[in-house]
Amino acid sequence: MSVAVCVFVLTLSTLNGVVSGVLSSPTNVQLTSRDLNLVLSWDPPAEAPSGLIYTTEFRSLVRNYSPGCVNITTFQCELSNFNISCYGTYIAKVRALLGEDASAWVESKDIMLDRDTLISPPSVSLLPIGQTLEVSIKDPEFKICSLRNVYSIVSYKITYWKEGQEEQARIHNDIQQDRVVIGDLDPLTKYCVQVQLITLRNRNPIESSGVLCERTGDTKNSPVVAAVIACAVIAVAVAVTVPAVVKWKSISHFIWPKVSLPRHFEKSLQATPESSVCLITQPTEEIAPVSIVTVEESSHEGTKESCYSKQLNGTVGNNCLHPAC
Q1: Cα(92)–Cα(105) distance, integer angstroms
Q2: Mind listing the pLDDT tens digit for each residue in 136-164?
Q3: Helix (H) / strand (E) containing 114
Q4: Mind listing the pLDDT tens digit for each residue in 25-58?
Q5: What integer is the mean pLDDT of 164-187?
Q6: Helix, strand, or coil here: 49?
Q7: Environment class of residue 199 by beta-carbon count within 10 Å: exposed (0-12), middle (13-18) or buried (19+)?
């Protein structure tokens, strides 16, 4: 009998209040922030039954609680999606739900967003220019607002050293620009660079960037010279090409001029001729005069001879209409 009672008690303990209608609350509830986001996270209750869901709420110091993530199965809630301020101080809470049963609320500690957020390291790139290194720095991207809007004073700490000689590192502090040229370096030597972002209001130490290493060049073969030459060639090409394109019509007329006939020739060729000047005239055949002499009366001899002679010559006139003909 006592064994059965013990088993019953242990079963009730394992269910942890499910039978009685009371759920255990989530544990390790905390608010965290990186790059001005705001995340509430927690652990599920110990030996939690399956099917648990969670509901969250949050508030600032000047407002009451507002709903956050509702009826979720994950163990964190991104509160940055609920219109929060870059400078606010926030508190959040969470509870577990199973059917009609609900656990007690568990509240987090407060967090001041701009003071307590963790800031990611800056992004850094190196460009060797002769015996110098150009360091380009890019600030981390924030979830809300921007780093320069939240922190009015931002500076960089640049540390650099010859590869393998980190103990002899040199430091440039309080750098305001995001592009810095490090000079006085040895030619054809590999240097390593690391950058850290500094703000006054954030109380968390900011991580340094990863270490980047680049080899310096030789002054005689500086890429700047090649870049200047390339730019000069491009400028000359543009200066020649653009006017050529703009003036192409005039240039083409100069190289290939149009040949045109004089105006009076064009008019004469276009006019329709009134008479044919190209007709081919057939050559006329000349007929030698032939005289026919007939033996007739002497009174008509001369007249007939004259008539025939004129007819054979192709001339017929009034004189040939003489009765004698």
Answers
A1: 10
A2: 999 999 999 999 999 989 999 999 999 99
A3: helix 113-116
A4: 999 999 999 999 999 999 999 888 889 999 999 9
A5: 94
A6: coil
A7: middle
**Residue 193 in contact with residue 125, Cβ under 8 Å?**
no
For the chain, how are helix, strand and coil distributed in percent, rounded to 5? 25, 30, 45
CA–CA separation, 240 vs 253, rounded Å?
18
Q: What CA–CA distance (Å, rounded) separates 135 from 146?
A: 22
Give 161's DSSP letter: E
Tokens of 20: 């009685």
* 245 CB-contact burial (10 Å; exposed 0-12 / middle 13-18 / buried 19+): exposed
Alpha-carbon torsion (127, 128, 134, 137), positive or negative: positive
Q: Is 254 exposed, middle or buried (0-12, 13-18, 19+ CB in 10 A)?
A: exposed
CA trace torsion 11, 15, 18, 19 (10° rounding): 0
Could you tell me how far CA 161 lies from the centroid of its own chain?
37
pLDDT digit string (tens) for 49-69?
A: 889 999 999 999 989 999 999
Supply the pLDDT for residue 8.
41
Q: Which of 77, 204, 78 is nearest to 143 (CA)?
A: 78
What pLDDT is recorded for position 222?
54
Give 174's contacts (C-beta < 8 A, 6+ positions apart). Answer: 155, 157, 198
Task: Say how far apart CA 193 and CA 115 lie, in whole Å.
Answer: 28
- Rounded mean pLDDT, 178-199: 95
By three-state DSSP, how is residue 208 classified?
strand
